[in-house]
Amino acid sequence: MPYLILIFFVVFTLVTAIIYAVSPQKFRYIILLVASLISYGLFCGFGTAFLITTIVTTYVAAIIIDKISQSYSPEGLSKQERKKLKAKIKTKKRIILAIYVFINIGILLILKYFNFFASSSVKFFSLLKVNVSAPVISIALPLGISYYTLNAISYVVDVLRGKFKAEKNILKTALFISFFPQLHEGPFGRYDSLIPQMTSGENIKGKNLYNGIGRMIWGLFKIFMVSNRAAIVSDEIFNNYSNYGGIIVIMGMIVYTIQLYAEFSGYIDIAGGISKIFGIQLSKNFDMPFLARNVGDFWRRWHISLGSWFRDYIFYPVSTSKLLNKIVKKINPVAANFLIVTIPLFIVWFLTGLWHGASSKYIVYGLYYFVLMIIFNLLSPIADKILLKYNISSENIVIKTLSITKTLLLVGIGMLMFRAENLSIFVHMISSVFSKSAEFQLYEVIDSKELILFIISFSIILISAFIKLKGYNVESKFNTLSLYSQYWICFTAFCVVIIFGAYGLGYIPPDPIYGGF
Amino acid sequence: MKKVITVICCILVTAALYIYICLVVSPKSINDSGGSSYYRGMGFLAEPKNSIDIMVFGNSDVYAGFIPAKLYDQYGFTSYASGTALQTIGQINQLLKQTLRTQKPKLVILEVDCLYEKTYKPIDNTNILLAPFTFHVRWKELKFRDFYTIPDRTRKYDIAKGYVYSNNIYKFENENYMGSKDSRPLPIPRRNLRHLKHFIQICRKNNIEIVFLELPSASSWNYAKHNFIKNFSIRNNIPFIDLNEKDSSYRIDFSKDFRDNGNHMNVNGAERSTLYIGDYLRKKYSLLLADRRSHEKYKHWNDVVDHFYKNITEFSCSKI
């Protein structure tokens, strides 16, 4: 992302914070909403129409669903009649939900996936020697559409589930869907935890301000000092993949993993920092993912909010659905237990892959994790038994190290697939790991000073993770410092990032990877 | 009260530190990273007062295709090539205003390729307060002198008078880059048109003659642009020299004249184009422009000419 956009966001946030601070408390959420819509309009222009469509349909659907429940009174009805009434209400609500999801997922499908499905269909028919042509939609994908659509759906589904009442104030619904810090790369939020914070109109406190600015600078540090420099090396290897093999491909895989983590977690830190200034705590999205013991554990630590969204709104509804339970009832219990987990898991990972992008590569990427999880589910009881037999604790340092290394290797392969242009390039790169590498002149790709700075910066991230692991909370320690100390730490860190960061002229800014989803 | 004083001190120390960082990272010479764009177009500020008769403004075509030393050597006209990469007419207006503070040019040549420049730099890279952002690669090359030297754009005398020497030769093959003569005129962006009108206004207010010029640029120029500028120049009574035009007596040597892919001229092309312009100016503005070669005040121009020819003898032509 060009650094000017990030700087724009920093300045935009500060201006919004000033206006927010001088506004009456009860109108402050409107300031946040106006700021969100202005920033979205500036970046998306016409695309704002899709955001507004989602806001309006979400508001209306939630209100109608709420009204359906209120319009039926069970008083004076027999048990059977009540049951019938309940079923009728449920059906009506579900119809509204289906229409709502149809509209919003329809927009997402058309804008994001239409061209992919159309070209795939053309290819399929050409295999059958049938010549067909498909139109191409050339509307720019509205910023963050995958994020706000899923956020909005979670709100309506929660209203349908009776978790909370529908919001009567459309401005509050709009703020939840369009809140600017999380619109670009997430994280996904839940209405019941976010909207009370967003609408409380909390004063901007010194502690929150510096904590927020500190987190923003930490995010900028990850992006400009680590991710953008890692991109210089990984782009060289992935863009010229046919020249490289062996250890160089493995290096590309590791560097890309660092790049992706630093970039994505950096943007999440910036979003979290901006929100913190306004007293809003966004949901956690990372929890030291590279210390995961298995791939399931990895996905509970990486993009946590996406995983929990799929768990709550896809996995549970599918695994508890009447249809699936009806099907598995007819088969033997072992197979039934297997299928009741496997089928929802398949759907979740298929959709996770598809969410990442309109390409067969992403679908295979999702299914890769599905297969790994199924294998893990089948093998872990056996592994547990072996450990038990030899009286080895799963917390044993050797076992722990082996588990983490195995997970890193599997995740690394996933990253390679994620970054490779397409599946055939991925296969080529994987097979080239075992072939001889062409000479790789690292200093021709990145100069020694940049490389040293990259190593130092990445070491700082590792040290911060290590001390967190040891139970020392840097953020809490920062919060206990005086406001002046916090100010000077922020200023120094800001100067370090702007002087030593890799951005602007002389660097090719990589596009935000998760911003494209 | 104590709190207020502490806050004020905090702000002042922050501002002082930030300004110091800005000064440290700013380029101190034309050879530092970012130094060429920071100093090159501004070298006229270090020229003796009222010593430049012709100012040439434009983008990178100007510093590649116009040689003030050659013009002085052959015709005795003093000039300065104030061109930087992707320079817009808006920025040229600023430069023109700065020029008028120390110089009284009799004639201004505007290289019109810049009128089609759509890249508006959101950050002014000459603003010292934005130095950490614009010159952020400078951390790699900081020297001890950077910590105590204050960058001063007004004292960066450029002996090449804005010209950037290159003897690279790129053989360009598409000789029909101008397209059809009857091409529909391609208007310049509205914002640029507004700035251009302002440019003309300033010149006329200060009795400065204007000449529009298009140096050979095979990768950016064509008849659609030519036709628009030609119509505009006729309407505004401004002479227009287009060295790309097929009817022009100027002949581009595509095998020798370019330094890169047809975009910028090398020293061969620049010498020929400068002589062509010099000849034109002598014929048309003989009453306005004086030959300064015999004046004592302009003696330093001999060093300028020597420096240019020294470059030629030092570098033999190489082929890309």
How many angstroms does the end-to-end distance of chain A come to?
Answer: 14 Å
Q: So what's the oligomer here?
A: heterodimer
Radius of gyration of chain A: 25 Å
Indicate the CATH topology of chain B: Rossmann fold
**Mind describing the biggest β-sheet of chain B?**
5 strands, parallel
Number of strands of chain B: 7
Strand order of the largest sheet of chain B: 2-1-3-5-6
Helix percent of chain A reads over 70%
Give the helix tally of chain A.
21
Overall structural class of chain A, as computed from helix and strand content, comes to mainly alpha
Strand % of chain A is under 5%
Order of SSEs of chain B: HHEHHEHEHEHEHEHHE
CATH class categorisation of chain B: Alpha Beta
| Mean of all residue-level pLDDT scores of chain B | 88
Per CATH, the superfamily of chain B is SGNH hydrolase
Looking at the structure, what is the overall shape of chain A? globular
Shape type of chain B: globular
How many domains of chain A, as an integer? 3
Radius of gyration of chain B, taken over Cα atoms and rounded to an integer in Å: 21 Å
* Helical fraction of chain B: 25-40%
Which descriptors would you attach to this protein?
heterodimer, A: about 525 residues, mainly alpha, 3 domains, globular, B: about 325 residues, alpha/beta, Rossmann fold, 10 helices, about 40% helix
Structure description:
The complex is a heterodimer of chains A (517) and B (320). By secondary structure, chain A is an all-alpha fold. Chain A has 21 helices and no strands. Chain A has three domains: 3-202, no CATH class; 204-285 and 448-517, no CATH class; 293-432, no CATH class. The two termini of chain A are 14 Å apart. With 320 residues, chain B is of the alpha/beta class. Chain B has one domain: Rossmann fold. Chain B has helices at residues 2-25, 35-39, 60-65, 68-75, 89-102, 131-134, 190-205, 223-235, 267-284, 301-314, and strands at 54-58, 79-83, 107-111, 168-169, 209-214, 240-242, 318-319. Chain B has a five-stranded parallel sheet, sandwiched between helices. The longest helix of chain B has 24 residues, at 2-25. Chain B starts with a helix and ends with a strand. The model of chain B has no long low-confidence stretch (mean pLDDT 88).
